[in-house]
Structures are given as C-alpha cells and as structure tokens.
Design brief:
Length: 686
Amino acid sequence: MPLHPILAWSTESTVWVVAAVIVIGGLAVFGFDDVRRASLYRIWAISSVCFAESIRRRVLWVIPLAVIGVLAVSLLQHSLDPQEAIRQTIKFCLFATSLIITLTALILAATNLPREIENRVIFTIVTKPTTRLEIVLGKVLGFVRVSALIMVIMGVFTFIYLGIQNRVLTAQITERLKTETDPGTRSSLQGYQQAGLLSTKSLASSDDYQIYEHAPNANGVQWLTGGFGYSVVVPFELNDQDKALLETAASDPQRQQVLVINTMKLKRPTPNTEDQRWITSRNLPVESHALGPALPGEDLVPMPVPALTIRVLDPGLAVIEKETDINGGKMAVKAGTDPKSTDPYTIPAYLSPEVDRKLIQTGKFYLQVVPESNSIEYEITQTPTVLLVIDASGQSHMIKAAGPPRFVSMANRYGMKIVGRSDGTGSVAVFRFDHADTPSNLDEPVVFRFRGGIERSGDYDASKAFSELAINVINRDTGEDSGPIKFHPETNRDTPITVPGKFVKGGNFDVHIRGMDEGQLIGMTRSGIQLISAEHSFAINLLASMIILWLMSVLVVVIAIFCSTFLSWPIAIVLTLLILLGHWGVEQLSDTLAPGVGRGVAADLGMQDPTQLTLFSSSVDALARILTTVAAFLPDLSKFPVMEDITRGVAIRPMQIAQSLGVLVCYGLPLIVISYIVLKNKEVAP
C-alpha cells in the first residue's frame, strides 16, 4: 500500500536521521580508536584474500552457464516485431546478470564469516594488529570486487551480443520494407529504421493529458453522455477562509449544509428500448411523467432523471472519498424538472461532516462528477461545479473551483480508455505539450512513441489482423494540423510513429489519439505518447544500468555480512532476503493491509461472537500496521531501476544513479557500523 506523500517524506527523513545517529554515534562510542587506526593497506589486503578465495571457489563458472542460458532463450524467441525482439534480449541479459551477481554476492557474503568462525580461520586474523572495523570493511570490499568482475564480464558479453543481433534485425527490416505494402506496418518499420533498434533516446512527455468524449472545441464547452464512463474532475484549493467555513459546518450542532452544486444544461436524444435495460440494470431513478418517444413500432419508455455521482479525488486522481459516503450514498438528482426546458439544471449533492473534515485535511483536491443517466447529454462548461456552504441562518457562502475542469474516462487495466469508431468520431485522448524539447533538425521527420493497451468488446470485427489507431499532431503556434496518421499498435509495446517535423516546431503542440475500429477500447496513461527528442549512446546507457545493478549488489553484500555476524549462514541468507524483499512484498499486498482488513478476515472466517470478532479484527489490524511501518524502514528495491528504461531505449538519468546510491548509503553505512559493533563485542578467539 503506497504511503501518503507526507507520511512517505516523514518516514524517509526519519530513516536518514536514524542512519546518521547510528553511524556517528556508533563510531564515536565504540570505534573512535579503530577509526583512527584504520589502514587502507590492511583493508585492501583482507579484501584481496576474500577475492582470491572466491575465485578459487570457482564462482566465475556461473558466467558461462548464464551466457548459454541467454543464448538459448533469445534464439528460441520468435517475435515478429524487431524492436520487441531486441528488447527481450536486453531483458534476458540483464536478468541473467542481476541473478548471478545477486546470488553470488548473497551466498559469498553470508557464508564467509560464519564459516571462518566455525573453521577458526578468524583466529589468525584477530590476533594480528587488525581491527574488527578493518575486517568488516575488507570483507565488504572483497565481495564487492567479485561482483564488479562478474558485472564487467557480463556487460562486455551483453554489449557484443546485442550489437550482433542489432545488425541482423536491421538487415531484416531493410528486406521487409522492399516488399511490405501495408501503410501502418511500413510506418512502424520506417520508424525502427530511422530511430534505430539499440539507440538510446531522451523522451519529451506531455504536460497535460485528458480524455474527451468528443473532440475539444474552442469555446471550452464539452458534452458528456451519461452512463458511458466519461466524467469531469474539478480542482479545488482551499484557503484559510474556506477551511474555516468547512470547519464551522462540520462542527455546528445544527449542521450547516455543504453542497456540491452542479449547474448544467441537458440534451435528451431520442430514447429507445435500450434505456429500459440501463434503467433496470443500474437502478436509475425515472421521471414517471416523462415518457420518451420510442422508435417506430416500439413502446414508450420512461426518461431517466438527470443524475450524477460525486467522488473526492486527491491531486493524483486517486479516490479519497467514494460515492457511498456522499449524498447519503445515493446519486445526486433533481427530480420534477421540465424535460423540455432549456434552462440549466441545478443538481446538488450533500456532504457529510466526515467528508468536510477530509476536505479540510486535504486542502487540495478534485471533485469528480460522473454523469449517470443514459439518453441524456450533460453540458460541461468552464465552471460546472462549486462548493456551497449554507449556515444555520440560511446565508450561503460559495467556494469556487481553483481552475478549469479536466476530462477523464473510466480506467481499464492499462489506464484511462478511449472508445474506437470506424468513422473517427469516437472519444479522443489529448496530450498537450508546452515548450517541449524537440529534435535539433526539424526538416527531417520526428518520431513519437505510443504505448497503450488494446481491449476489444463484442462489437469488434475479429477478422481484422490488427488494431488501427490514428494520431493528429496540431501545432498551436502555427495552427497546422498533420491530419490523421494511422498506425498499428500492440498491447503494452512501444510503437514508433513518424510525423513531419514542422508540426512540433516551437515545442507547443497537441497530440490527438483516436481508435479507428468499432468495439475497440484503448487504455493509456500520461506517458502513452512521448516525443523522441535526442539520441544517446547505448553503450553509456548500458554502463549506467550496470552501475545501478552493481550498487544493488553492494547493498546485498552489506546486508548479508550484517546478518552473518550474529546468525548461522542459512538463517543469514533467509534474513537477508526478507530485508531485501520486505518493502516490495508489503507494497504488493496493497489494499489488503488497509484499515479494516481485520473485520474482513473475521467475516471470511465466519466469526459471530462480538467479543471474539473485535479482538481478532483489532489484532489483525495491529499486525497490518506493524508490517506497513516496518516495511517503510526497509530498503526499497524500486530505487534501483535496472531494466525499465534501458529496455524501452530511454536514457538513464544521473539522478537515477544518485537515487540508488542514496539508498545504498542510507542503509549500507549504518549496517556496516552495526556489523562492526556486533563483531567487536563477539567472542571469536580463545
């Protein structure tokens, strides 16, 4: 379960403070003399002994096995997409490298000290003028050198093998272009040929991303159809006066009212019998006096009452207050209105004191307005929603939105979705780029990268061999529109799209993405479209990825040595794995550890006794809190991004290496000091 940003920042700060206290306090109290006497010569000598012993144990024999495994797996893959083929090979090489480096470092570091104590080899060392601090540092350095050697060998192999595969696949692309006639496939192959399969790119991402049911127009008015998953989010940012109003409303015994007021015009297209299905399946309220004109030969059907669902979202658009806690858990409706009226409807939703307090605590939030009634289109203007506080005397106080509304859609497994239409009139994803970095030579075509997920409903024509999308690039400075450029994407893979450079000149442009197939659903995130802005060396990017991997292996060595100072080697290996994977494991549990999990577990077990239920649920909740708290203080392996960027051909930024180094320093130095203190106070010699 991801931490709240403030809690995450507080935890991270606390971890750094604790680390500094351990390092400074531990060395000042226990190791001042040993620090003063420390000799780089003796540390290097101890590390050389560990390094030589590891080589004598034939640890390098795992490298040929890893190479054979990579060659076998990569040669057996049959990817029709050349870019995907080379990315899979990069993954195989990096996975094999990370596996042998991590396991070798773990086993060597966790078994060395317990084995030396058991064999009494340590007696020879401790009787020399060598401090326990030098022993710990020497062993860490020795096993780190082993990891570095393995990394260098595997890095050279990876670079040579990928270079060979790149030449083979590039030649295949050239041959396919001679005979390929499909425009979408040719566009993808030309994009691969121009951008290169192994080159590393800097990508310019959009500054804004919205999903519109209809193409956006110049006047800022949009119409949303109810019941199809399109919605609008309205930003609010409370000042001190606004918070005071809500605080008074939440604490007033007579309960001042806080309403979400939505004012909008409505359109009522011709209904049909499908409306009755929607009304029944979604339990929508209907206007009994308003029967819509049915299609020829069909019965009249009731018109649904205009209804809305309201949610509260955080700045990252995550739900912090569900619709079940707003308006008494019911949809917001305005019954009794004239269905033929053209005047705006006012549809209020009432907030509870608990929601008021959450708004005060959050301060900055979005109100999501979801049109629910089918056969009705809702007009969304630049100010569709306000908060209205009505005190006990009936006086109203308005809290206006902090900015224009944002348009979103229902999410699928790959992000917010757009719905395809064969005539190009389906919903559209709009990516806005402001002052984006663009390639230096815009006389040549530029390349965009598309990445999304394709899902298909029952209306999709299954006989089609591929999905078809269209991209429009509109230069806001010049007003030029590229027109629809069709391409054929694959789910969760980067697809290159070639566009004339003039449409991105100046860096201020919009990118529109539409589906061109009936029944096609395309899920995208903000990074669904990115512009390749610069080229870099793949060798440097591979080196950066290997450095991050090596830093992770250093962390493994330090943790393993720490555990081995007070545990036998089998238990030390297990504890090392728990420390390394603890943070990741708790994150995977996600909402399972959310407050209230205990009551859900008790219900699943069929507990009925109130006392037993309360005791059990509180115990499970306490355990969940302990796990979450402990995990927050364990190293986060996601800070070592080894594969994500390099497999997508994205340049690894220096900040990512600095981030990995920060985790290593934060956890590595304290554990080295603790290992030294434990070893200093441990009786290892007669």
